[in-house]
Specification:
6 copies of one chain form a homohexamer. Helices cover 27% and strands 26% of the residues of chain A. The first copy, chain A, is of the alpha/beta class.
């Protein structure tokens, strides 16, 4: 158990609500975006993926706060989100102009890489409905107050979309704090950006930072660590820090075989949050996060296809023998 | 033969150059955009499709003047255009900002329909590189003068993208006329828009108009006619008018079986232009256009997979017996 | 408006709840079950399909009462049902024995047919969890009383599974009547069975009967009529009867092009129920039912991929022109 | 019953043996050979298809006499033939030279056509092992004598491969006659060839001729008749003649919906031969042939996926209603 | 050579007959059962796989004794078995009741796993026709006596289906012994079951046991050994014991790359049996078994796609260079 | 910089022209040729692949000199070559006889292998149009003189097709030398053939030899080195020699993960030639070759899907981290 104070589940409609953009991911399978003639599609988004996994993998009640342009593409994203089990009633549907000049849906063309060829993604999300969200769009008091939410998750991908999306993050986290809702924020630090330390919102749980020891104001700070041996093989680990535990380390997974690495950081976050929401010690939550991140890399797409039982078993050291 | 005056082929690098947008078409096959999990992709665009068919079906030398954002999606469009055989050296590559805020590539999610369910398309082409083309981007004098072009094709889809694209159309057609290059313009008239009569550029050959008799300044005016019995069955015909021939009519094709109707108007245009470029009488060119439009509806995608021999045979009345 | 008395939407958690089996449909596409090497899968079930369409096509709040064996196949059915948007919280999960001796999930191998080759299906649903449901499994008083349901839909496919499933139907319909919930029952009459007149439960709306005039105790009686010209072409119509309107007839659709006819009767039911739930006159509801049934035959799978707007437009006489 | 004299089934190892070439068919599905990027493969060959259908559709014991080059492609053809249930022990395996200079396996790239676009095939079978078969390769006396065969089927496609294949046909039919084995020969007459009347072998049953009344030496003469309305719709019928019955006509099937017409003539032959082998009157056998030919056009590939029950039901006038 | 006494091939119709269940395997490819929308299908069954490989890989004459319900699914299993080349004339076809209450066909939903995610299978084979086989169903005296069989293979998967299937195993092995047919029995020991030592039938060759030294009554005892480094990488070996040779060990294959491990134990058995049937020393047979088991893990599905030449080459130490 | 003397780019229409055969490659994906039911197709050919990569990966102007039979298969090869961007105007189209007796198109059935199962290919290219090319077919003086070509690439695969193809190689290289065009020749040495030292044409750059130090007459000699750990994992390196540099070695890549190894030697050649054409030192060119060869093994098909930027980055030591 950490010192996080969680609202009572019975008094809350949702265990977790994510605030972020949901994009349509277009995936060329074992080929490349630039030469393919077919795409598989699924939905994905850093903050959303956490809500999806908490619902589908861990069985919690979650919702997504986002905006979508109301056209066939947006409805396809909704179709995918329904599969994900995430409550879509908080989605803001913005009328489409027939062309995509005023508002669009975000797209994400990403190939998985193989061996010496790294994974590669192109975002096509300018002018997305999510990036145009602004303070006042969402009635947070109704959501956190009347309905009740135990945990709010958001992060740096959404906050970085635009000035107004950053303002929505600030508005949402402030409202969450007023109602005792725990706030987690995934910086999604990437060395190429070095955006880890600028203007973070107050977050009880801070994820995806460069150095977990540099954020003493948070109750829990955690992140994955990865060495890319090749696109098909990563050394994968995770660390967490809290005032009471100090620095903790998850079991290392050297030479982890990778099918599609995208979304593993989000799965780390959801595994960890599941552990914390369930009242487990931080070390256990950290192992759940690391195991869930590892499992997500064994299936295509951004989102996790694992089960809670598989996460727990892997965290507890089970092997990959056939079950039948 | 019509009274079109054509530049000599030997003095021209290109038989035809199209000016227009090229989009990535995403096609869910026999399913629907809003519920699919896979898309086939190909390239398409009203003006471009004409250049593609003249190259691949009819064996002429063609090029496309357009602009694309330089990212993986743009390179995929290029990959498709290469398959189409169209010279891509006149494509203007615009640097991508990593997000799609400043410039993007146009996308077109289109399903083909079946029976009582009509075909349905969503354009996602706001802020596309093509829509941001502006006068001065292309050295028309070099193209029409130094290199030499027999025919310029453009139309209302591209002209309607933005004020600047309309200005590029005006600039291009004026330049073409200076060098004796024949100009065709496909209005792409649709009853829902009724945009057929506003501010057409001077065009020798005017296509896709509502009423072919209303444009006496053009040398040839032509259009298809279609009654949608169902998405899978159309009555399909075509008419043309010229000062010397008056009104002409192609063979009617009642109850034509349709797999994917998108692109049939463009194939009508390319068949007709092929006939005119080859010096055939307007009636023959018209039959080529109608036959090519009909054949295009028997294959998936916007673009034609027919051969010139098939077009000619169908125009001359051949049936659909097996050839082996 | 008919004389159906509907509970107020605000006092009900669900607009409609279906009681029935949900099977995994395995579809060989354009091939045949007996020679295929691949199947597409989706979920389906006569009663369930109605709840699914009312949620996904018409935007109402629906749930399914059923039972599933808790194994990977059952979880795949759940994955599909989530895509369908139907509330799955009333699903009864039965422990699996690892073999399928005690309890299983129903499977449905169905091919669509083409031309002179009729559609063909094989049910493999012996010992299914749904067929083993029995009175007392569901707390109907809680559902209809505490939660509130405006409409209960069930039918002869589920009632015919076993003596106990028939008893559950009787229990559910009796409970529904106690709470003022409208009851519809789809006999799913097929000439080969002639099971239309035996032991029907009391139903306000009776569907899929042989002769709509023979059930004067119901408020509305309706059914589709179909002449199978070929597997690819049906003459399709529908009739309804109510005491106040007498016999009504929907617009005939002769020669309707059919891709996959399975589920069209269920879509007729959901279109009609939508009309009645919305308070439209029976003639309008009947047209919605017929139009929705027709649209469902244009896509693969049991379930509808149409939109409410498309249903309304087709019911009002729109053609199948391309929309873009 | 016709006046065909059939050997007793108990004294024969095979009900029918076909002599002909088996090719690998490469099928681009709904696309075209010249632009596809994927092929489905199956095996096919005019004479072989008859043996396959008699085994898989009608349950008889059949074998194929042919030759294949012993490489991965030949083994793939074998894999397909095993699926077809035809006994492959009479296949002559010829060593491969690693290049295909001396001997190869026949290939057949065929697309199915749609609407106004006809089916189209390219044979690539020069130097095939089958075309190089020569008299003496097969021990016919052992086959017809020691093992016993009730019926030998061969035809003009194989006989036309080369002078030596024609000699093998002559050798085989002569041997068959010595042992009382009925001989059928499918001319595979096509108007473009007009090869129907030249040097036919003595055949008890003559198929695929231009005019069934011109071959009085045969016991049965039969052929299909077809009018190609479009590639997707044919008027389809069949006629037969025998000395005792005179001219007979099968039920006409106007406007038959066609998915893939290739192989329908062979299926006509197998349905007819099944009827004759079973001792049915010629009119019944003719109806089986016509019904089987019609059913084969409803599935992809050269070979039939029908069942004997479906053939009989269609021949007796059943419709295409769903069976479930 | 071992001291196995084999019947003469010329006096036997079959080299090997397997007794066991054949299921339809449904494989989601690189995805998971619980989230897939497509399955590839093939046939499989522990005992059957041995007969299939001996026929298709090693060229022997084999048959399967099993039972199937006579519906479209059973016919699909037959279609797959024909591809496998195994003689299906001994299959007992049981009438289907249209629902699957009395009798069904066994299904096997299995995913292959990847990296830290293990392979996972769900059997759905309750009430299968095979599990309902009972003594007296098969005329063993005719099979082993009149027709002649050199080797009978069966095992613990089939014996464990039901009391009556165990009785059929006892009946069959006793009959085999009467006629001098060698009997092999694959325990299919799995640590989770620990069923290795209970009530084994008398078997000349005993496979898949926990400890090869504990079965001194058998002529040969053998098993694979495996350490699951990950689902994609196994250390793979095999051991055998016979009275004359004592304990033997096959070449170890550490870090073997695995695509789909299911069926490797059966392929070990078939490779070993091939060696023994061919009269090779046990060490050679053991190496064939180990090599064949390893090769089977490089292709999808339960069944082997290897060739005898590849098995021999790998057993003799060949590498994985390209052959062309 | 090496001492290669290159013609000026401005005076040449092509940077490189390849002389060789282009075959249709049929690829069963993760399955095997002998058991597949689907093939993906693409074009490939040792010499051609170099021209393709120089155009599509490195942006140079390239053409192919080859011959194709003019049928649907040849047109499919053309469709693929257009995607490859290679100028097809020098292709010689030979009339097809409808059967493939006189002339055909080369086919190449190749599977990629996995783990202990090696890659495996079957060429079916006897009587191909390319193998029948003969001196005099091509006007080399026009090509090298009037049009201008900086570099001619050909090799031992084409030279080995026939006596006449070898003569065409001699004719072409002699002509190239007359016009100052650099000549490279890829021996494509394979240990099983040991054809490396016989009758090589005079080549400035000699590739794919057994021992780079044995060819002092060439300006540059280079080859890859490979140890096949398994089909999925190779140790991969490369060496080059020139009089001025002596022996050079590229960075070793031990344990390189391989998806499809076919074409890696050709990609080595194109990367090296790009470096040399760009005037880089031999060590840099060698690293480009090795990096390009490595990248090609990460995608399906013979041809490279890499970008020049990726080649350079890998050559300079970049890892396989995700780029997004």
């Amino acid at each position: 158990m950490t010192s996080l104070r969680l609202r009572d589940a019975d008094s809350c409609r949702y265990d977790l609500v994510s605030l972020g953009e949901v994009m349509l991911r277009l995936d060329p399978g074992e080929g490349r975006v630039r030469t393919t003639r077919t795409f598989r599609v699924s939905e994905g988004g850093g903050e959303y993926n956490v809500a999806r996994a908490l619902r589908r993998v861990f069985g919690l009640r979650t919702a997504i706060v986002t905006a979508l342009a109301d056209n066939e593409v947006g409805r396809l994203v909704e179709d995918c989100m329904l599969t994900g089990g995430v409550d879509t009633s908080l989605v803001r549907w913005v009328p489409y102009d027939g062309v995509g000049r005023a508002v669009r849906n975000g797209l994400n063309f990403t190939e998985r890489g193989f061996g010496v060829r790294g994974a590669l993604g192109v975002s096509d999300r300018g002018h997305s409905a999510a990036s145009q969200m602004k303070p006042g769009d969402v009635d947070w008091d109704h959501l956190f107050g009347a309905e009740g939410v135990r945990w709010l998750h958001t992060g740096g991908i959404f906050a970085g979309l635009s000035a107004s999306s950053a303002a929505v993050v600030a508005e949402a986290t402030a409202a969450a704090r007023r109602y005792g809702t725990v706030v987690s924020y995934d910086v999604n630090y990437r060395p190429s950006l070095d955006n880890s330390d600028i203007s973070l919102p107050m977050a009880d749980v801070l994820l995806g930072v460069r150095d977990v020891r540099k954020h003493p104001d948070s109750v829990v700070v955690a992140t994955t660590s990865r060495r890319v041996v090749s696109a098909s093989r990563n050394d994968f680990g995770a660390v967490a820090w809290s005032p009471s535990t100090g620095m903790l380390k998850a079991a290392d997974r050297p030479g982890l075989e990778v099918l599609d690495r995208v979304g593993s950081g989000d799965s780390f976050a959801s595994g960890l949050i599941f552990g914390l929401l369930s009242g487990y010690p931080l070390q256990v939550a950290l192992e759940y996060g690391a195991a869930h991140g590892a499992l997500t890399m064994t299936t295509p797409g951004d989102t996790s296809m694992a089960t809670a039982a598989e996460v727990v078993a892997l965290a507890e050291g089970a092997g990959a023998s056939v079950r039948r």
